[in-house]
Design brief:
Elements (H helix, E strand, L loop, with lengths): L1 H8 L4 H13 L7 E4 L3 H10 L4 E4 L1 H8 L9 H9 L6 H15 L4 H10 L11 H7 L3 H17 L5 H22 L5 H16 L1
Parallel strand pairs: 1-2
Helix pairs in contact: 2-3, 9-10
Length: 207
């Protein structure tokens, strides 16, 4: 598993990611409407090509980390804190109103940051197309990273697997367990909210 992962990471080209996403579709992946990732250019291109119907969301956590590259080491904390607050607004109208105020406030002091935010922040606001109840979980890759952490924790307990197949059996069982928990126990993403949200949008368009 380790050698396969290393090999894959060393050929993260557009074609390799396209093959990966296309392989998921061949194995039954369907109905994808929303994809969340960091700003990975070749992955984005592969998603656009193989899943053209899906909306892309740039992880806001990674975006805020990237913002640090556009401010001096001793930048005013309030500037970045206020930028973080945009992701707690109830809707896009609130974001656009407050973003205009933020730009006016910090343009003179941090022009490099403000220009970069103006050019890129829209990619991080796609989650506002979803129902409010889904915003918390779909604006970042945290959900995926927690899954990866749990897989890492459980595989480290075993430490040595007799074969790649035995490792895959454990990972598959864990993935099924977490999937069922999301759907049935804690209702991590209640699809009823999404169905109602779509219905409201259709009614608004028909009005």
């Amino acid at each position: 598993m380790g050698s396969w992962n290393f090999a894959f990471r060393n050929r993260e080209s557009h074609s390799s990611w396209r093959e990966f996403v296309a392989g998921l579709k061949q194995r039954g992946l369907a109905g994808v409407e929303f994809v969340v990732s960091d700003d990975h250019a070749v992955l984005r291109a592969a998603v656009r090509e193989v899943l053209p119907e899906a909306v892309w969301q740039r992880c806001y956590v990674h975006f805020l980390r990237n913002a640090l590259d556009y401010v001096p080491p001793k930048a005013d904390d309030d500037c970045l804190i206020e930028l973080r607050w945009f992701y707690d607004r109830r809707d896009l109208a609130e974001v656009n109103r407050d973003l205009a105020q933020w730009i006016a406030k910090w343009q003179a002091k941090y022009p490099k940051l403000v220009n970069w935010v103006e050019d890129n922040i829209e990619e991080t606001l796609s989650f506002y197309r979803l129902p409010l109840a889904h915003h918390k979980h779909m604006k970042s890759t945290n959900m995926l990273e927690r899954l990866n952490q749990e897989i890492k924790r459980r595989t480290l307990v075993v430490r040595i697997f007799p074969s790649p197949q035995s490792c895959l059996r454990l990972v598959r069982a864990l993935a099924v367990e977490i999937h069922e928990n999301w759907l049935e126990a804690t209702r991590y993403l209640n699809m009823d909210h999404l169905r109602e949200h779509k219905k409201e949008n259709l009614n608004a368009l028909a009005a």
